[in-house]
Amino acid sequence: MNDQNTTIAAISTAQGEGGIGVIRISGERAIEIADAVFKNINGKKLADMKGYTAAYGSIQYENEKLDEAVALVFRAPHSYTGENVVELSCHGGIYISRQVLRAVLEAGAKPAEAGEFTKRAFLNGKLDLTEAEAVMDIISAKSRSAARSALSVKDGALRRKINSVKDDLLSIAAHLSAWADYPEEDIAEVTDEMIFDSCDKAIAALSHLLDTYDIGQAVKQGIDTVIAGRPNVGKSTLMNLLSGYEKSIVTDIPGTTRDVVEDTVLVGNVLLRLSDTAGLRDTDDKVEKIGVDRAKKRLEQCGLLLAVFDNSRELDDDDMQLLETAAQVPTIAIINKTDLENQLDITVIESKVKNIITISAARGEGREAIVEAVEKIAGTDRLNPSEGILSNERQRANVRNALASVREAKAALEMGMTYDAVTVSLEDAISELLEMTGEKTGDEVIDRVFHNFCVGK
Ligand code: GDP
Ligand code: ZN
């Protein structure tokens, strides 16, 4: 990455046609560089303006007026990056935005790398690493719960939790080593009970956080979901009910859904990546067979199976085969066509599947029941968006390792090992937590975090 002293610039709005486009400039020379391209309507230089002020004028490039613009001035340290920042808002076309950026670069700024603004904010102590990562999660959020969770983490929910565990462990470790190093001095003794107590508290907090990871993934990334059932049970109709518009082909002829139809829908606060499959029946039709094979494969690997049954027909071999699969993956059994007379023996399904709901997809009845069942199975009914959740592999690895080390410390104590051994494990745990928040993190890890960002963030 470029060194910290250069002034960087990038287009910070999405690239495309929009009402406005924002070119962000950050660094010591940001205001001076902006003054070189921006002509204030009242003639006043940005350099003579206070922070948090705006000016209206135009961008000048190659002795011509390029566009009207508004300049927002932020002065270090009161800006996103903690440096001097100017944001030039112009019209949001691709050509205009790029020309303004070009003018800014010619005036002395360097193109910003992916995530470089946020990286600078982190290096300047504006954000810890979990908060920086949350910026990206906010940008990519596709649902209210995803956005709210990310916002809480951005506001420090995760940082505070981790710091409180870390401070607790630190104080025990510090006591232990002071006590070991200066036994003759009058340092308050640490009792085994105090250490046990701190370890137990840390173990509880860290385990709870680990649990939030899977829930967070369901909210953020979504769950690979397969809708399966024998031909004509109403899979396509169900899919339409979930996605809210006609996407699958609904027909009366069994086997019409030849291929895997995919769609991403928000069911309650869970993102489902749905595929409506061809039926699982044996077939000689070549095209249909490809669909069936593909469906079987997806079924075995899916995160959630919506197994659909027809209330108006007795269970057949295909249904029984589906029930066998259902016993092996997280499943919601959906009994469809409750508007028709019951022929199906529900006790057979009850003996195989725990979550069963009844709907009439054609009448649009039962979506709520599906939402409830999906949120329960994904665990998001337990999600408290104001609580911090683990949102990526990096954080999960740190918490997992810290948890293992605290457990080791506790075990060492139980086995009557020396306090030195306990301290070593506690210090391992602490260093994992320091790495997680970015207080003690290698450059490589930091670079990796910010390279996942896009340019302009
Ligand atoms: P798929 O082959 O499993 O995808 O089934 P479809 O969704 O294509 O539906 C097959 C037929 O069942 C269509 O004629 C639907 O209108 C009908 N159907 C779907 N859901 C219901 C329902 O809840 N009640 C009734 N009476 N018919 C339904
Ligand atoms: Zn279908």
From TrEMBL:
Protein name, per record: tRNA modification GTPase MnmE
SUPFAM superfamilies cross-referenced by the UniProt entry: P-loop containing nucleoside triphosphate hydrolases, TrmE connector domain
Organism of this sequence: Ruminococcus difficilis
Gene3D superfamilies: P-loop containing nucleotide triphosphate hydrolases, Probable tRNA modification gtpase trme, domain 1, tRNA modification GTPase MnmE domain 2
E.C. number(s) listed in UniProt: 3.6.-.-
Primary location group: cytoplasm
Top EC group: hydrolase
Free-text remark on how the cofactor is bound: Binds 1 potassium ion per subunit.
Residues engaged in binding K(+): 232, 251, 253, 256
UniProt record, GO biological process: tRNA methylation; tRNA wobble uridine modification
Keywords: Cytoplasm, GTP-binding, Hydrolase, Magnesium, Metal-binding, Nucleotide-binding, Potassium, tRNA processing
Endpoints of the signal sequence: none
Cofactor: K(+)
UniProt keyword annotation of tRNA processing present: yes
Cited InterPro entries: G_TrmE, GTP-bd, GTP-bd_TrmE_N, GTPase_MnmE, MnmE_dom2, MnmE_helical, P-loop_NTPase, Small_GTP-bd
Name of the gene: mnmE
Subcellular location: Cytoplasm
Residues that bind GTP: 232-237, 251-257, 276-279
NCBIfam families in UniProt: mnmE_trmE_thdF (TIGR00450), small_GTP (TIGR00231)
